[in-house]
Amino acid sequence: ISNDYKAWYGFFVGAALSGVVGVGFYPLLGSRVWCRFFCPMAAVLGLFQRFFSRFRITTNGDQCMSCGNCSTYCEMGIDVRAYAMQGKNIVRASCVGCGVCAAVCPRGVLKLENGKTHKDRFEGAEHPLADLLGALKKK
Question: How far separated are the first and last CA of the chain, in Å rounded?
Answer without folding.
Answer: 63
